[in-house]
Amino acid sequence: MSTGRTALVTGANRGIGLAIAGGLRELGHRVLVGARNVEEGRQAARSIGAEHLELDLTKPETFAARVESSGGIDILVNNAGVLFDGPMLDDPAGFEASMAVMVHGPYHLIRACVPAMRERGWGRIVNVSSDWGSFHEGLEGPNAYGVAKAALNALTLALSRQLPPEIKINAMCPGWVRTRMTSSAAPLTPEQGADTAIWLATLDDDGPSGGFFRERKKLPW
User: Is 145 a catalytic residue?
Assistant: First the structure.
């Protein structure tokens, strides 16, 4: 595993994202805490010795300038997510927000980060997904959450066939983690949920690409 890479983790101002960012920082990487809320992002970054990068996933037209200002990204973790309740057809705004944050945002951010990865001959992309977006598990996510995560999984698999082998892209399910978006009854801590993402973000050259993982074990789509 190489150290000293530059990592960007979206939605890293709290929960699983902050745990992923903290874990990568402990491994010696330069870490950018991607967050839309500037004050929350700065506070989170300070807490782990990282840097804040203001990033609104609903505004992909800003990504190129943000990534360029960072000096180039070696590790991209698309972690940010939103969760809405209620019937999908009754909530078009929830559908649009889900797709913007968990599909369109990651797609455009990958496009912005890949050129530097190609140039450097090394890159790791981790898409934080969920078994709620798994057809094998019944696509059980509420509202558009499962649909968006299923699309993120599909994007992961499709891009793994188009990216060069030195750029690895994988999706992962953190499991049921105690966060503001879930429940205090969830059995896993953010740090436990972050473990597989950190592993995928620091894979050796012979590591997998185009897979879906939980607890470092491959899952069916």
Answer: yes
